[in-house]
Structures are given as C-alpha cells and as structure tokens.
Amino acid sequence: GYMAPEYALEGFFSTKSDVFSFGVVVLEIISGKKNTGAPKLRQNLSLLGYAWNLWKENTPFEFMDQRLLESSNSIEVLKCIIVGLLCVQEDPGDRPSMTNVVLMLAGDITSLPNPKQPAFVARKTMSSSSSSSSYKQDLTLTMTLPEGR
After folding, report:
1. Taking every annotated instance into account, which residue ranges of this chain make up the domain Protein kinase (predicted)?
2. Residue 82 and residue 109: Cα distance in Å, rounded?
3. Using CA atoms, how far apart are residues 48 and 122, in angstroms rounded to an integer?
4. Which of 1, 6, 41, 89 is deepest in the core (most CB within 10 A)?
5. Ordered DSSP codes for 49-70
6. Average pLDDT of the residues in 78-104
C-alpha cells in the first residue's frame, strides 16, 4: 500500500518513491482508514482513488475522519489532503520533493498546485461468488535450457 508504482511495476526506486509513501501515510491519517485492507470504500476504490474522487467532486471534507473534522482546523487538514494527493501522483516527476512538501505544509494553502490523478486509483477484488471451477487460466510452463556449443 505504500510502494510507489514505479517501484512496484518497474523496480525503479528514487526519492520520489519515499514521497509517494509519505503521501499515503498522510491520507491514511486524515481518513482514519488504511490504504490496504480497508473496509470497502465507495465504488470499490482504493483509499487513494476514494480521496481523488472526493477531490474531483469538490467534497474533500467527506474524506476526513469525523473526529479529526470536529477537533482540528479544517483549512490545515485540507492543506494536508492536497499535499497528500500531490505526493501520490502517478508520475514521479509530478510529485514534490520532501523539501517542497515541508515548505507546502508550512506555507499558505492558496499557493498549492492542483494535484493530478494518483497511481493505483482502482482496486480489483475477488468476488466471493466466483469459484475456482469458473475461473480458467492457462498454466502452460515454457522452460528454455541453455546448451553450450
């Protein structure tokens, strides 16, 4: 749940991978939900997808844990949502550096850029009604053995 897509899919690790992980943790804290193993969210989305959809619908306060909403400065929490979404953007080049994250958190909310779609928006789940007999997969194995000349 914290692994950056470029590392998960291509094995490429950079400082932007750490930024991605930080963004996931920020969004988990704000929502009070885990990114993985969370209760089923609206439209079968991951936590990142759920946050993104609420952002696009202009209802980010629905993402906040109710206890946090009641006991905090909502503008500061909104700033954290924006920064969290900036950190989990799909393209590592679009993510801020950790230095910029610190500056964003200390700065004014009006100076923050708009986030782009995060990675891992949709989540696939296995249906409990599907059985192994209805699921077919080709399990052919091809093995090549090198031989000397």
Report:
1. 1-120
2. 9
3. 9
4. 89
5. HHHHHHHHTT-GGGGS-HHHHH
6. 95
DSSP-assigned letters across all residues of the chain: --S-HHHHHH----HHHHHHHHHHHHHHHHHTS-SSSPPPPGGGB-HHHHHHHHHHTT-GGGGS-HHHHHHS-HHHHHHHHHHHHHHTBSSGGGSPPHHHHHHHHHS-GGGPPPPPPBS--B-----TT--TTT---------------
Q: How confident is the model at residue 36 (pLDDT cuts 50, 70, 90)?
A: confident
pLDDT for residue 4 is more than 50: yes
Token pair 């950079």 is at which residue?
14
Q: Which residue type, as a one-letter code, is found at position 79? A: K
Tokens representing residue 125 in the block = 């789940």
d(CA 127, CA 124): 9
pLDDT of 97 strictly over 70: yes
Which of left, alpha, beta for 43 (phi over 0: left; psi -120 to 50: alpha)?
left
